[in-house]
Amino acid sequence: MFAKEGYSVIGTAITISVVLLVIGVFAGGVAAYILYILAVFVTAFTLYFFRDPSRTPPAGFEDKLIAPADGKIILLTKGLKHDFFDEPCTQISIFLSPLDVHVNRVPASGKITQAEYYPGEYLVAWHEKASELNERSEFGMVHPSGGKVFFRQITGYIARRIVFDLKEGDEVTAGEKFGMMKFGSRMDILVPDSMKLIVKPGDRTVAGESVMGIFKS
Predict the structure, then answer these.
(1) Rounded to two decimals, what is the model's pTM?
(2) 185 included as an active-site residue
(3) I need a labelling partner for 105 at 20 to 30 A (CA). Which of 24, 132, 207, 208 fits?
(4) Catalytic-labelled residue, pool 109, 131, 137, 185
């Protein structure tokens, strides 16, 4: 299964591959083999990047903070201030390499109370200022328990396109798909310091399946 956000790119990749194959037929010799290999690589990589595997939420996911993206946790910082929270908060940053699944999923059940898009720069995703300066989308939501979650899609140096379909007022369920980031990027999740977290820097996450924290009853 492939992400619908990638259909146009997949179509373009297949077209380019067909052109390379045709050129290869006329070129002949070593050049033909190089073009054949390049054609296969272009299509294979594009299909691999836009894969959209099914995911099964963990038991009791309604009361858990679920990873919104595949990747590696590169940052976990407590004691931050953010306008969406009335108390100190913790930021968790997940870095997605070009080899990770890039389909994004909602990190918790509840109601979207904020949804904004900001154009910006294209610093490398692990840059400390990427959360503030890069192109990004930001979402604030409230869990049925009253707990708040803030998350954002951030472009990287390679990623140049953010896609999402969330809007203010949406009722969402943890683990449901809401968009994707194309070709390497970063996802930030902010929660109150009081939330019980069960992840640490260096951990790998699977969107829609990995449990990151637990909401208080």
Answers:
(1) 0.85
(2) yes
(3) 132
(4) 185
